[in-house]
């Protein structure tokens, strides 16, 4: 009974229960009014009381563990037997069959429920014809029509409810699959971010330290002062790398961006560290006196790109000069990294520039793609390389338009 209903279907159940009790009470009152001295009155009163108790027992025990399918069938059978006896004694109680139709349809499988409805309908027709005392076509055809209509409506509603439950289950399963897919994508994106951070900070720093220490080892005997200078430079790089690693663990911005000078000061600090030995690095910032406020993620990404590009220039390009040019406009920012190294033929070595190979250039492209920008590489054998990054900035007008949309 009630335990098989969804929460939003409780009100039809309440209406059916109320209709049953109203029909039962009306039939009892009508019999007592029409037959005040009938000897069957004690039975006519006792049987509705028993039928009421049985009918109430179903919803009461419906939520308990003991209310198994076997007990439901037994409960329905007792109700039908008591109602049948009552109808044989007083045919006016036949109209109580309509709520019993739904009790059978809710409790039994479809075929068994239809069989019970047919039996109840036959009893209703027989009781009404007996009560009328004459043949009436309306009494013969009206109850089956009502029973067929009620059964069709109920079974169709059950089918729709089952389809809705299936749709809800599919939706929940799809949401779970989507959430799992988003988690996998999030894990992949985080791994990619970590790999880029490690490559552009820790790995490049370790590479610089290795080169400085190797240079110190080569000149240790012949020029101790120069060797000590290389060692001091390596120690400075190690100190900066340590600070970057600590900030990286805490998920903060690069260490060079911790000050008040912004991206321009961070690029100058980077150039000072990378300058030394055969390579000299210059920095030029062109803001035209109208520099926009760069988002933190843009500053961090451009600084990491510059770090990766200079590390590749030092390690692979055999360059003596490199230049960082930062151009700040109202709607975009441009970062150019140029060197005078040996260069390469882009058509022959797609994906590498001045030794931009391995993970370096893909990491840069990934960073630029996350910013919605563009990265281009121009190079030719013996003519050096120019790497250019353009990132479009969101203007206040764009932000307001996005908010309106």
Automatic annotation (TrEMBL):
GO terms for cellular component: membrane. PANTHER family: NITRATE/NITRITE SENSOR PROTEIN NARX-RELATED (PTHR24421), SENSORY TRANSDUCTION HISTIDINE KINASE (PTHR24421:SF62). SMART domains: HATPase_c. The keyword Membrane applies. CDD domains: HATPase_UhpB-NarQ-NarX-like. InterPro entries: HATPase_C_sf, HATPase_dom, His_kinase_dom, Sensor_HK_TwoCompSys, Sig_transdc_His_kin_sub3_dim/P, Sig_transdc_His_kinase_ChrS. This is Two-component sensor histidine kinase.
């Amino acid at each position: 009974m009630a335990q098989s209903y969804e929460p939003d279907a409780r009100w039809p159940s309440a209406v059916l229960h109320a209709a049953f009790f109203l029909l039962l009470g009306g039939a009892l009152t009508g019999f007592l009014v029409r037959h005040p001295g009938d000897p069957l009155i004690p039975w006519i009163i006792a049987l509705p009381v028993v039928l009421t108790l049985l009918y109430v027992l179903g919803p009461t025990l419906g939520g308990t563990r003991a209310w198994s399918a076997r007990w439901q069938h037994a409960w329905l059978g007792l109700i039908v037997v008591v109602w049948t006896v009552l109808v044989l004694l007083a045919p006016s109680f036949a109209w109580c069959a309509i709520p019993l139709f739904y009790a059978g349809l809710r409790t039994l499988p479809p075929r068994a429920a239809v069989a019970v409805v047919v039996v109840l309908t036959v009893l209703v027709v027989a009781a009404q014809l007996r009560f009328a005392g004459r043949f009436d076509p309306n009494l013969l055809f009206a109850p089956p029509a009502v029973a067929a209509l009620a059964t069709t409506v109920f079974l169709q509603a059950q089918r729709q409810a089952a389809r809705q439950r299936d749709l809800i289950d599919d939706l929940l399963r799809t949401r779970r699959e989507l959430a799992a897919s988003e988690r996998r994508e999030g894990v992949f994106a985080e791994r990619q971010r970590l790999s880029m951070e490690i490559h552009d900070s820790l790995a490049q720093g370790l590479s610089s330290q290795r080169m400085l220490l190797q240079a110190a080892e080569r000149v240790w005997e012949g020029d101790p002062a120069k060797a000590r200078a290389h060692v001091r430079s390596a120690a400075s790089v190690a100190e900066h790398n340590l600070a970057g690693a600590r900030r990286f663990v805490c998920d903060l911005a690069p260490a060079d961006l911790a000050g008040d000078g912004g991206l321009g000061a961070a690029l100058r600090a980077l150039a000072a560290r990378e300058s030394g030995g055969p390579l000299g690095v210059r920095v030029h910032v062109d803001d035209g006196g109208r520099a926009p406020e760069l988002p933190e993620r843009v500053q961090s990404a451009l600084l990491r790109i510059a770090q990766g590009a200079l590390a590749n220039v030092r390690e692979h390009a055999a360059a003596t000069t490199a230049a960082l040019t930062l151009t700040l406009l109202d709607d975009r920012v441009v970062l150019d990294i140029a060197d005078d190294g040996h260069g390469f033929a882009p058509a022959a070595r797609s994906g590498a520039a001045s030794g931009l190979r391995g993970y370096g250039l893909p990491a840069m492209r990934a960073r630029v793609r996350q910013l919605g920008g563009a990265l281009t590489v121009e190079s030719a054998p013996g003519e050096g390389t120019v790497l250019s990054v353009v990132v479009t900035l969101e203007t206040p007008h764009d932000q307001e338009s996005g908010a309106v949309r």
